[in-house]
Amino acid sequence: MRYDLIIFDNDGVLVDSEPISNTILSGYLTELGHPTSYEESLRDYMGAAVHRVHDVIQERTGQVLPADFDETLHARIFAAFERELQPVAGATDVLGKLVADGVAYCVASSGTHERIRVGHRRTGLDEWFEDEWVFSSEDVGRGKPAPDLFLHAAERMGVAPERCVVVEDSRLGVQAARAAGMDVYGFTAMTPAERLEGANGYFDDMGQLLGLLG
Questions:
Q1: Band of residue 48 on the pLDDT scale cut at 50, 70, 90
Q2: Cα–Cα distance, 20 to 113 (Å, whole number)
Q3: What is the model's pTM?
Q4: What does the DSSP 8-state code read for residue 88?
Q5: Phi, then psi, of 209 in degrees rounded to 5
Q6: Measured at the alpha carbon of residue 110, what is the angle toward residues 40 and 76, in degrees to the nearest 5?
Q7: How far apart are CA 146 and CA 169, in angstroms?
Q8: Which of 179, 121, 144 lies closest to 46 in space, CA to CA?
Q9: What is the pLDDT of residue 214?
Q10: Tens digit of pLDDT for each residue in 158-182?
């Protein structure tokens, strides 16, 4: 394999959480008086840490979201995860092959550590990730599209950025990977390739990923 470390985004790449979380986010913002469609939520917030929601709403409306916004949003999302969340089809097959081939991997997500843990526990992916292989935007000062999270993951895993490849499904994530000096492959199961401009390649089925990485 051409890379020493595979860095996976989490939401939409390992767990099929984007439809759930963006349905809830768009509904909650609309409830608060900021009408937002599901498609607009995907466009504006997919792949970003929750602070981006605050920033965008304040920039567009001059209003500040409620102090308990994050807590309420996460509670609603976690409850839905427990009912509905599934792993992305083929994700465990990819992880199993990486383990068999002795290739290092980790996850670097805009979500909180709690969100990652809840999702992995619900889908059984916790069996595939040691705690020290899990990185969150909480660990760094700036989330995607800044390169900080991916550079932090590479440093902690002991791999030079140029020997890393990122698997992403969001525009902000692709931008962050490129800014980190890493190759990146765009997963287009939900996001059209044109929205992942700058990726080294694209795939819409997890079964295709290993062929791109080899």
A1: confident
A2: 18
A3: 0.89
A4: P
A5: -65, -50
A6: 65
A7: 16
A8: 144
A9: 85
A10: 999 999 999 999 999 999 999 999 9
Amino acid, single-letter form, for residue 27: G
Q: What is the CA radius of gyration of the chain?
A: 16
- Which amino acid makes up residue 42? L
The three-point CA angle 196-102-183 to 5° equals 20
Q: Which two tokens stand for residue 92?
A: 């465990």
* Chain mean position to CA 110: 6
Place of tokens 């069996």: 127
Residue 152: strand, helix, or coil: helix
Distance CA 57, CA 17 (A): 22
Q: Could you give the CA distance from residue 34 to residue 210 in angstroms, rounded to a whole number?
A: 41
Could you give the CA distance from residue 159 to residue 153 in angstroms, rounded to a whole number?
9
Q: Which of 125, 104, 96 is nearest to 13 (CA)?
A: 125
